[in-house]
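User: Predict the structure for this protein chain, please.
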Amino acid sequence: MIGKLTGEQIDDILKRNVLGRIGCHDGKKTYVVPVNYIYDGHFILAHSLEGMKIEMMRKQPQVCFEVDEMQSLTNWRSVIVWGEYQELTEERERYYAMKLFVDKGLHLKISDAVIPSELNKLPILPPLPGNNRPVIYRIVITERTGKFERD
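Assistant: Here is the predicted structure, written as structure tokens:
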């Protein structure tokens, strides 16, 4: 049976997971890439070093975001969110986002590539090479949907 997820089920899936895929487009090329994220009940929050994904989202801030939970080929849930990319530049917003990452990250293995440099001051995290300040951003959700299949 294939069905539609409720708003509450969509929220649960977004809150429970930490890995999603962001889709962006710059007018010439479409790019889909996995990202670690946090869902705070309002926004998808993520961070990245500057690169193709950030450049594309700056040019065209309309993005798509997807999260899957798959038990088997006939038992899965999938959420798709559409929204607008916004960089967090105010220190208060960046601090809030980083606190959420740290709170959730205490239970995750975090690679050097995704640790915001502001977090290097914490003794439990290894320092990042270089002086790369990560881009911390959010997706302001404008639309969302979810489907499931259950055998």
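The first helix runs from residue 7 to 16.
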